[in-house]
Structures are given as structure tokens and as C-alpha cells.
Amino acid sequence: MSWLRAVMSNRDKMQSFREIGEALLKANTIAVLSHMRPDGDAIGSAVAVARVLVELGKEVTVLNQDGVPGSLDFLPGASLVKMPSDLHAPLEVDVTVVLDTASEERVGDEVWAAFGDRGLLINIDHHISNPAYGDLNYIDVKAPATGEIVYDLIAAMEWPLDEVVRNNIWAGISTDTGSFRYPSTTAHTFEVGAQLVRGGVDVGGISQSLYESYPLRRIYALRELLKELQISCEGKVASWKLRRSVIDEFGLQPSDTEGLIDVIRSIDSVIVAVFFEELEDGRVRVSARSKTPDADVGAVCGKFGGGGHQLAAGTRLSGPIDEAAARFLESVEQVING
Ligand SMILES: [Mn+2]
After folding, report:
1. Who's near 301: CB < 8 A, 6+ residues apart?
2. For 188-199, how does the pLDDT look when each residue is reduced to its tens digit (9 = 90+)?
3. For residue 101, how far is its CA from the centre of ligand 1 (angstroms)?
4. 125 C-alpha vs ligand 1 centroid, how far in Å?
């Protein structure tokens, strides 16, 4: 299995927190990156790392191809995150840290094109499909969020954990664990959470901003999606399609539909939930969620050139959306039927 090989080789190539920490301390200029269409963990871990490095006296540039989505711009320090178009000169740094990003491609071409010199590449992540593309790598596939790894790095180095850092790490862990609910959540996750809360985290405020502050258009999108609900494989597979017409009608932003897949994943008989989204270029973005490692959606997405974890993965397919969905669902049903 390719992901297993990737994990084995990851282990060979893994560095310690100390080695990564020392490399960061030696640098003067540092770029901090995370994946395109960023989620709470991508933004939270990038802002947390950037903030610590600023406090250590480093000159830090945080870049994201799509910038901070509106749903996350309440996070303290979110304004640190720039888009490639905000830069006026090629970026030349001693070290580039890539967080929460399974492959170099997921950073995005526009970000890489902004560099004159990216220096030493440090790759910190928790995706099982990560091939350890950095010069230095820390990949912990058991960590439920990159934010948790960032916490452990900061703790190991005894770096300052100020309010901005604490709140951003909390947001990353909270979003990637479904509010400390997913099976990837460990005792250590709660210990990290406890330390963060002890230091001071606005638990209620962040939860409200993350989970109870949706724009109305998200609910309109949900109404349209419910009309598209498709149940197959004797109730074990649920899927829906977000069509371009709906995206245009309600002016949906990519982050508006983040997490809506959980609505169909929560159906009792469902093992695998799949979300198909028609992209502007006619391609189809696929997000898949599984309730059991036996129905490995990471492997299914891998077959289609994507990646992720056993329980959460994604890929992109060529359109049209109905044909793409049929092709993908056939593979899902094969995995479920063994
Ligand atoms: Mn993550």
C-alpha cells in the first residue's frame, strides 16, 4: 500500500523538534505556508507558528494562496496572512515552513511562484499521504491536527505561548477534531487543550465564532444540497452535489460549505459521505468522509490522484459533475463491498 510505504519512509526521514527548532532559531527570515482553501488548522497553525517566530525576533511572511476565509478572519493575528498578490518583490528567505499540507502542490503554484529563494524547507504535518517533501520533516499521522504538533514543538523548545498562539492552536485542534469528537482525539489532545485553556483561551467565544456564526447563504446552500441528496449502496453511501448554478445564485464562497458534509455523514446507516462540488473550470472537487478505516476513502481518493487520511480525503476529477460522481461512487461501493 502506497500510504504505508510513505509512512515507513516518513519515519526514516523524521527530524526531532529540537532539530527543527534549531533550524528556525538559526534563520533570520522565515516564510510560513499552508494549503490552499485553508481550514481552521491550516490558518491556526500558520498564524501560531508565525506569531512565535515574530516574538523570537524573526522577520516572518505568512502566505496562503487563497488567504484567510471570512469564516476565520475573527482569529487574532489572522491579518498576518498575506496572499501572493500582496507581495511587491520576490520572497527570499532562509527557511520556509509548510504546515498542514500533504503535498507541495497543495500549497499552490501562485505561492511557489512568489519565491526568489525559499531556503531550507521544513514540512510539519499530520496527513498520512505526506511523502516527507521537506529538507526537514515532522509528520505525525497520529496527531489529530497540525495545531497539536505545533503546540508540542513550542513546548519542547520552551518558546512563548501568548494569547494569539493559544487561540490559534485551539482553533486548529477544535476544527480538525470536530470539537474534540473524532476518533483521532487522544488523551494528549485533551492535555494540550487543558494547557491552552489554563493559559487563557476564549473557549465559548471561539466556538461561537467557528460554529454559530454562519452567513445565511450557507443555509440556503444546505437547502439546495438536501434536494440533491443521493443515498446508495443500501444506505451506506450518501452524497450530494453542489452545482455551479447554486454557487452563483447565492454567491457562495469556498468556506461557506465547509463541514456541510457532516450533515449527511451523520445519517445512522451511512458509512461513507461524499461531497461533489463543481469548480469554476468545470472540474469537480470531491471531499469524502468515512466512519471506519475499513472503508478507506484515502485509498479511493488516491486512485483518482488525490489523498488524505483513511477517514477524510479528497481529490479533483474532470467533469461533468454527474459523470464524475458516478465514477467516484462506483469506487466507493467497491471498497465497501470488499
Ligand atoms: Mn489539519
Report:
1. 286, 288, 307, 308, 313, 314, 315
2. 999 999 999 999
3. 8
4. 7
Partner residues linked to 290 by β-bridges: 272
In angstroms, rounded to a whole number, what is the distance separating the alpha carbons of residues 160 and 22? Answer: 15
Distance (angstroms) between ligand 1 centre and the Cα of 7 equals 17
State the distance from the centre of ligand 1 to the C-alpha of 146, rounded, in angstroms.
Answer: 5
Alpha-carbon distance 45 to 145, whole Å?
Answer: 9
Helix (H) or strand (E) holding 228: helix 216-228
Distance 249 CA to ligand 1 centre (A): 31
The CATH code that applies to domain 2-211 is: 3.90.1640.10
Global pTM reads 0.87
2 confidence band (pLDDT: 50, 70, 90)? very low
Dihedral over Cα of 252, 256, 258, 262: its sign: negative
Which residue in the block uniquely carries the three cell numbers 504538533?
149
CA of 312 to the centre of ligand 1 (A): 10
Q: What is the pLDDT of residues 50-69, one digit of tens each?
A: 999 999 999 999 999 999 99
Fold adopted by 216-336: Diaminopimelate Epimerase; Chain A, domain 1 (3.10.310)
Task: Please give the Cα distance from 130 to 278 (Å, whole number).
Answer: 26
Which cell numbers in the block locate residue 180? 474534540
Going from N- to C-terminal start, the domains of the chain cover: 2-211, 216-336
Distance (Å) from CA 93 to ligand 1 centroid: 25
- Cα(288) to centroid(ligand 1), Å: 15
* Nearest of 179, 331, 333 to residue 262 by alpha carbon: 179
Per-residue DSSP letter, 36: S
